[in-house]
Amino acid sequence: MEILRVENLSKAFKKFKVIDDISLSFEKNEIFTLMGQSGTGKSVFLKLVLGLLKPDRGRIIFQGEDITHASDQAWIEIRKEMGMLFQNGALFDSLNVFENVSFLLTEHLNISHEEKVERVYKLLMEVGLKGIEELYPSELSGGMQKRVALARTIALNPALLFYDEPITGLDPITAAVIIRLIRELNKKNKITSIIVSHSIKTSLEISDRLGLLYRGKLVALEEAEDIKNSKNKYLKQFIEGSTKGPIEVFLEETV
Amino acid sequence: MGILKLFYERFFNLFEQVGNITLFTADTFKWLFKKPFRRQLVVEQMEKIGIQTLPVALLTSAFTGMIFIVQLYFSLKEFDLEPLCPRSLGLTLIRELAPILSGLVMAGRVGAAITAEIGTMKVTNQLDAITIMGINPVQYLSVPRLIATSLAMFGIVVMANFVGILGGYLVGTTLLDLNKATFIAETLKYIELKDFFASAGKGIFFGMIISMIGCWRGFYVKGGSKGVGKATMESVVISMILILAADYVLNLIIW
Ligand SMILES: Nc1ncnc2c1ncn2[C@@H]1O[C@H](COP(=O)(O)OP(=O)(O)O)[C@@H](O)[C@H]1O
Ligand SMILES: [Mg+2]
User: Fold this and answer.
1) pTM to 2 decimals?
2) pLDDT tens string B20-59
3) How high does pLDDT run on average in chain A?
């Protein structure tokens, strides 16, 4: 069953097309990874779907409802069903871990402090953390920050979770922990996961389906098991990490 | 041609900025009257602002009173008019110096702090995180700061008036030969309730300027942490200029 669909989505910044006529449908409970080089518009795509940026053209349909032009009030309800793990975690650095993780509970639910304590404890356990409620984000390592951010994001059990470069910049072991968490949340809590990443290895390992973004266009879309045998030239080049192929390479490319 | 174009751009830019500030302020006022009202956040802000501003503002006002009375005394004594000292001191402090000096002090400390904090939140995606969690960041960040700076300025100006006159009184009646009893009587005789309200009203208005410029500059910061530094400085400069300009306009209206 479909949970989210975008149709002819386009977004330009000062005539520079960052997202160019993308149509894509996401299935309930799948793990989808959108791959692409840095600067191809992956983060912009997520921001469009989350309503943080307004598309120039196209439609966004969430759970059968057109939310492209939803009111601020409607978005508040929609966003209770969605979550996003930012590339840097985006924890509130003036709040401690407890206040960060309980943020959604405090704002959207009317529950007692005791219940909040209990739920924060459980949420932190879900991401494999314990006894750090009093610490501030600046006192945590990058990997821990991401896990706390994940706990904060899943507090209201979203149906759909977006991950922006969830493992970029993490050491391999911490990355493995995050990947296991994404998978667990997908299985246990039935959270549909849309991941944005430029790491091929983990993308192949974790996803049910993958797409490849190049210069704002969706140039490949495959089931995970078909990837290895795909005839798609873009995909082949991206996976092999080759400089030869339809993806143009600039030597002065910055990350 | 180059200069004309530059001039045109600068002018247009200024026009645009004024429009943006106005829109931002209107937006904050719109959210001011919407539920929920986050009292806790207002209290936190008031505490912060009080600690940051009160000591410096009172010290500034006290010293101004102490210095001002000396200058007044020697200027007026030449014409045997030194009995006018308390009246001049009181009116100038209450009508002008206390609100302006407190405003400038608060702009330098609180305005800067607000822009730095919100600007950092912006560049680290914390503002987006708030939005995604179904909360309007203007309502969550800007509204409490608007209320807090206004209320705090009210209190600070009232105290600054008192402390400034007290400073003048102490110097005037101990180091100079002004009469204690007539000093108090004269001060009370010439200060009307209207002056008091105008003074406090100015303070409230300056407080609004500081928080609105501070928040606005933070919300629209560009260019990473370097941009935050630049925005912080701009926030202080714009607030100070606006406080002085607003004071001039308010004087025309009130007197
Ligand atoms: N708010 C914005 N205003 C202008 N340009 C932007 C904005 N956000 C992103 N861009 C540009 O869009 C392009 C894609 O950015 P992004 O989606 O962050 O890439 P990535 O695929 O690495 O996540 C980049 O060239 C970036 O400079
Ligand atoms: Mg990105």
Assistant:
1) 0.90
2) 999 999 999 999 999 899 999 999 999 999 999 999 999 9
3) 92
The pLDDT of residue B255 is 74
Q: Check: CB of residue B167 under 8 Å from CB of residue B121.
A: no
Residue with token string 């009893």: B181
Contacts of A82 in chain B (CB under 8 A): 132
Ligand 1 atom nearest A53 alpha carbon: 1
SS (H, E, C) chain A: CEEEEEEEEEEEECCEEEEEEEEEEEECCCEEEEECCCCCCHHHHHHHHCCCCCCCEEEEEECCEECCCCCHHHHHHHHCCEEEECCCCCCCCCCCHHHHHCHHHHHHCCCCHHHHHHHHHHHHHHCCCCCCCCCCHHHCCHHHHHHHHHHHHCCCCCCEEEEECCCCCCCHHHHHHHHHHHHHHHHHCCCEEEEEECCHHHHHHHCCEEEEEECCEEEEEEEHHHHHHCCCHHHHHHHHCCCCCCCCCCCCCCC
Could you tell me the residue ranges of all domains in chain B? 55-254
Mean pLDDT of B208-234: 95
- Tens of pLDDT along A87-132? 989 999 999 999 999 999 999 999 999 999 999 999 999 999 999 9
> A189 with A166: CB under 8 angstroms?
no
Pocket of ligand 1 (CB under 6 A): A 13, 18, 36, 38-44
How confident is the model at residue A251, as a pLDDT? 57
Q: CA A161, CA A164: separation in Å to the nearest integer?
A: 10
B107 CB contacts (<8 Å, ≥6 apart)? Answer: B206, B209, B210, B236, B239, B240, B243
Residue A250 has pLDDT above 90, yes or no: no
Contact B168, B66 (CB under 8 A): yes
What pLDDT, in 10s, does the model give residues B69-111? 999 999 999 998 988 999 999 999 999 999 999 999 999 999 9
Residues in chain A closer than 8 A to B117 (CB atoms): 94
Question: CA-to-CA distance for B79 and B134, rounded, in angstroms?
Answer: 68
A and B: number of Cβ contacts within 8 A = 47
- Residues B184 and B166: their CA atoms lie apart, in Å, by 10
ipTM (interface pTM): 0.90
- CA B176 to chain centroid: 32
CA distances from A138 to A92, A135, A167 (A): 10, 8, 19
Under 8 Å between Cβ of A76 and B131? no
Contact B135 A76 (CB under 8 A): yes
Q: Percent of chain B at pLDDT above 90?
A: 86
Structural domains of chain A sorted by starting position, each given as residue range(s) with its CATH number in brackets = 2-240 (3.40.50.300)
